[in-house]
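hey m, so remember when u said the tokens were messed up on ur end? i reran from scratch. heres the input so u can diff it against urs
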Amino acid sequence: MENLISLVNKLQRACTALGDHGDQSALPTLWDSLPSIAVVGGQSSGKSSVLESIVGKDFLPRGSGIVTRRPLVLQLHKIDDGREYAEFLHLPRKRFTDFAAVRKEISDETDRETGRSKQISSVPIHLSIYSPNVVNLTMIDLPGLTKVAVEGQPDSIVQEIENMVRSFIEKPNCIILAISPANQDLATSDAIKISREVDPKGERTFGVLTKIDLMDKGTNAVDILEGKSYRLQFPWIGVVNRSQADINKSVDMIAARRREREYFANTPEYRHLAHRMGSEHMGKMLSKHLETVIKSRIPGLQSLINKTIIELETELSRLGKPIATDAGGKQHMVMEISRDFDQIFKEHLDGIRSGGEKIYNVFDNQLPAALKRLQFDRQLSMENVRKLITEADGYQPHLIAPEQGYRRLVESCIVTIRGPAEAAVDAVHVILKELVRKAISETMQLKQFPTLRVELSNAASESLDRLRDESKKSTLKLVDMECGYLTVDFFRKLPQEIDKGGNPTHSIFDRYNDSYLRRIGANVLSYVNMVCGGLRHSIPKSIVHLQVREAKRSLLDHFFAEIGTKQTQELSSLLNEDPAVMERRAALAKRLELYRSAQEDIGSVAWS
């Protein structure tokens, strides 16, 4: 069972080292969940003497006014033999064998945190004492409750101390050691008053009565010690501390314990209670009770720790990785985030994420519909056919078929296909830009770095603009190629016209009759429709090859090349994270370290 108290000791030290003091904060706190014994009492109640009596050493600062201004976490470790020594958490490699030096270090460490202004602080001091004369026990010595501020302290100090004490003892895992002097009315006891507020049924409170030997003659504390005056769930404990004269004479603590035992054994009023009186009994009883409480809390602690680890890991994942300090690390981080974005962009195109299907919609619906909407009526109207045919013949009429006229009519129709082809390129460009925007918003780490997000977005947009321009050139060339070279076989398969039409006695403008011109228009329309059918398939292939596939392959090539040339300062500007986010991440990382360590430690104890 002793390893249970050692476990809590270890966790408390880890809490303090990693900034978990149990105070109100935006971070989960393990400190508040650990069972502890808080020592509460008013000034001059004998609180310090009780603690020193349990330890068997003079080690606490003494003086007038408020001496304890920071919580002191006192961890006692029983050793089999050897010399007694003490260690502070803030001085991990230094052993104190002179307990007068321990007293001075407590005062000095208090001043380091609070200054010499007699202010108070909730940041605890951790002191471990190793001795064969102690029991395994951990207690938290809190500042003494007071009613009046001393010189050099604000009037608010009274309420501040009470608030601090209450913040410790109101937690359900806190065992309260309420110290009250027997030579004062129990109804005025500061310790009993504040303990009753947070523990009205007395289920967590141990009452300790000091200065029994200083009561007025003819009075005794039997009714209190027997629980008749004020009942608690646990029996009251009476102690007899050293007098001020004994302290001044440096009376040995072991001798003082012996005198305490003799006092209760030899005083008629207390003889029947002697077996559960004294500081030795109190230390053993508190140690046993603390072990029992810790054992009962282990399952709940494990559940809390596992749940909190998941919450901390989730938030850390959301906040992203910490920023590297060197140029290489920063460059690697920028590249890694950029690749994450690039991968998400590709997943949209490949159908793993939504959005890529809109490109197919351009090819399957928008482009065919645009081609169908092309009106060739103007190009193939009777007047235009006659005009182009006669103009193409020039001064000498064609002999068999108006070849140049055909070419001019075909070209005038095919050139209008440039519009739908260009529109298809632009439509795919708009979709790709939207997918870039989506991928940026879905790249979680980019939320950390607004400058990098903007730079990456600009680089991707510029790359898509270049790809669009290249795609547009090539796609329009497909249309131009259809104008530049006609499919001869189509025209060779047409029925040969025997009659040239028209009357040679008429003028050149009346050379062809309407029937012949209509037949020419119909042939041209049939050829243009054939060309539209071919371009309907070749335009998407060109766009996919030059825009979509190139975007997948080389969207960030220019950006990566530029990143390779940037200096540390330029890289730092890309990773200019919000300082509040950096602080939050660092705090969460420390707290996660604490909880993982606690998970491992508690797991090993629970298993054993």
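this time it looks ok to me. Confidence is low (pLDDT under 50) at residues 498-510. if urs says something different then somethings off w ur setup not the seq
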